[in-house]
Amino acid sequence: MPIGIGCVVKATAGRDADGFYVVCGIENGFVLLADGKRRKLEKPKKKNVKHVRKTNMQLDLNVITTDKGLRRALSPLNVNEGGNQLV
After folding, report:
1. Residues with Cβ within 8 Å of residue 84, at least 6 apart in sequence
2. What rounded mean pLDDT belongs to the chain?
3. Torsion-angle region of residue 69: left (phi > 0), alpha (psi -120 to 50) or beta?
4. Sorted alphabetically, which keywords does the UniProt record give (predicted)?
5. Is 67 exposed, middle or buried (0-12, 13-18, 19+ CB in 10 A)?
6. pLDDT of residue 1
7. Which phi and psi angles does 76 have, rounded to 5°?
């Protein structure tokens, strides 16, 4: 299944590698990513599709309209085994 808007992805390259993001747009082989903290919904990061890996999680961006809601939805993914925040 291809990457679509609302898919949760993991960055595999760049300074944001290993971080989880939600796809909030697609344009010409690039995805627009937001995490609600470093990359807000108003100014998403443009990243090559080759540099992200899709997860099984899907978010409804019609329901999550704020950066706070996005951070809350992604927070379980950004915690490691010791309970410390990764992002």
Report:
1. none
2. 88
3. alpha
4. Ribonucleoprotein, Ribosomal protein
5. middle
6. 67
7. -65, -25
Query: For 81, what's the count of Cα atoms within 13 Å in the CB-facing half-sphere?
Result: 0
- Sign, CA dihedral 37-10-5-27, equals positive
Q: Is 12 exposed, middle or buried (0-12, 13-18, 19+ CB in 10 A)?
A: middle
Contacts of 38 (CB under 8 A, 6+ apart): 16, 87
Structural domain boundaries in the chain: 7-62
pLDDT at residue 55, rounded to an integer: 92
Q: What per-residue string of b and e applies to 34-45 under the rule 16 or more CB within 10 Å gives b?
A: bbbeebebeebb
Q: What is the pLDDT of residues 30-76, one digit of tens each?
A: 999 999 999 999 999 999 999 999 999 999 989 999 999 999 999 88
At residue 5, the pLDDT reads 94
